[in-house]
Each structure stands twice: as C-alpha cells, then as structure tokens.
Amino acid sequence: MSIERTNPSGLHTTPGYHHVTTVKTDTLVYLAGQCPLQPSGDLAPGGLEGQTAQVISNILTALGSAGATPEDVVRTVIYVVSPDREDLSAVWTQLNASPLGPAFTTASTLLGVAQLGFPGQLVEIDVTAAL
Fold first, then answer.
1. Membrane-spanning residues where (predicted)?
2. pTM tops 0.85
3. For the chain, how big is the Rg over CA atoms in Å?
C-alpha cells in the first residue's frame, strides 16, 4: 500500500492538509460519520469542544477496530453546526492538536452546516482510510 499526499503548484497554500491524496491499496476502510455520542448513546457534554473530543475518541476506536491508524486516513469531511468561521477554526485546531491529528494532513474538507442528525449535535466527521 502506498499513500502520496501532494499540493500541486498552481493551487493555494493549505493550513496543513493536502489538495491531492493518491492511494494504491487493496483495502479501503470507510467509517460512518462519527458523531459525538458516548458509548451510552448520550450526547457528549461540553459544547463544541466536548463534542469534538468525543468524535476524536470515536474515530480512534473505529479506526483501531479495522486495524487502521490516523496515518492511514486518506480523506476526511468535517461538519460543524455553525455559521461562525471561528467555530470551524477552533474545531480544526482541536483536531490537529489531538492524537488524530495526522488524519488531517490528507485530503480534507471543513464545512459549516445548518444542522446534523441528532438533537444538539454540533460536529460530525466522515473518514476514509487505506490499508
């Protein structure tokens, strides 16, 4: 398996992610959008920061169950319920400072959205990994 992450000339400089991720592999791992739900099914407390921490934990657990690590991640899509760029930036900063941080050096998209599936949910992340 090989993963190549590049930023072609002619495209803008990124804040840490790469524009293009090329993968040669036999196995892809697709995680369902990971929500800020605790194992009990309850929404994680602590607002946006607490919910982001729970999503990080959930992703690490899901990746580990498939034998994957953050370094194996080839694509992420991050959804944040907020029209405020400061909230999106705070989530991006928290993600990159976490043990999941290497996952966000790959092709990533960060979106502010109107709402997500669970009442009170503020963040969700889709993840694809290659093994």
1. none
2. yes
3. 15
